Amino acid sequence: MDNDVSAGSGITTVVGRLALGITLLAFGLGYTEVIDGVSAADAVSIAQYVGGIALFVAGLMALRDRDAANGTAFVTLGALWFTWAVSAEGSADAAGLFLSLFALVVLSLTLAGGDQLGQGAYGLFFVALVLMAVADFADSGGLAKVGGWFAVAAGAVAWYAATAALAHWPTALPRRAAGRGVTATG
Fold it and tell me: Where are its TM segments located (predicted)?
């Protein structure tokens, strides 16, 4: 990694966010059932290989580059995606429990700080997991679809964050002055 590049903006972060974004898009679109014949079960291979293995390896690379925040996030998320993929055939209550535990990890990542896009992606993903867990416990297909849309939004934000880093697009929202009539001096 180039010394001029701050931790968290290197290629491993881009790869990790792309892997997370693609996995969330596939996972979320499967839950929304917006594409005829595509369900969450169809996202299992993507979750296992892209969200599981590729994200885990990106996390290891980030840890090697001394990017502890993204390394920890990607390794943990990779392990959880892989586990979700290989255990997708369990009962609804077991799935709800797993998604609840997954949500706790993502909540920790959301509250850990970092850049706005990363926190936004994790925050949306957290809401998606909570909605999907409740949907599994309550056997509510409608709530699962809403959770799917939150996962799609999280995937889009993660994808944008990775693409923005590569394309040099804006990655932070501009800040406003404190109130009306307040101007910055400089």
Answer: 12-31, 43-63, 70-88, 94-113, 120-138, 150-169
| Amino acid (one-letter) located at 134 | V
Please check whether residue 21 is in contact with residue 155, taking contact to mean a CB–CB distance below 8 angstroms: yes
- Range with the poorest average pLDDT among 1-15, 63-77, 111-125, 169-183: 1-15
When the candidates are 3.30.1460, 2.40.50, 1.25.40, 1.20.120, the CATH number that belongs to 7-167 is 1.25.40
Q: Provide the CB-side half-sphere exposure for 56 (13 A, CA).
A: 11
Tokens of 5: 């590049």
When computed from its CA atoms, the radius of gyration of the chain, rounded to whole angstroms, is: 17
Which residue pairs, CB below 8 angstroms and at least 24 apart, start in 128-135? Answer: 128/24, 128/28, 128/154, 129/99, 129/100, 129/102, 129/103, 130/99, 130/100, 130/103, 132/31, 132/99, 133/95, 133/96, 133/97, 133/99, 133/100, 133/103, 134/96, 135/96
Integer Cα distance of 156 and 152 in angstroms = 6
Domain residue extents for the chain: 7-167
Render pLDDT for 108-143 as a digit per residue (tens, 0 to 9): 999 998 889 999 999 999 999 999 999 999 999 999
pTM, two decimals, is 0.85
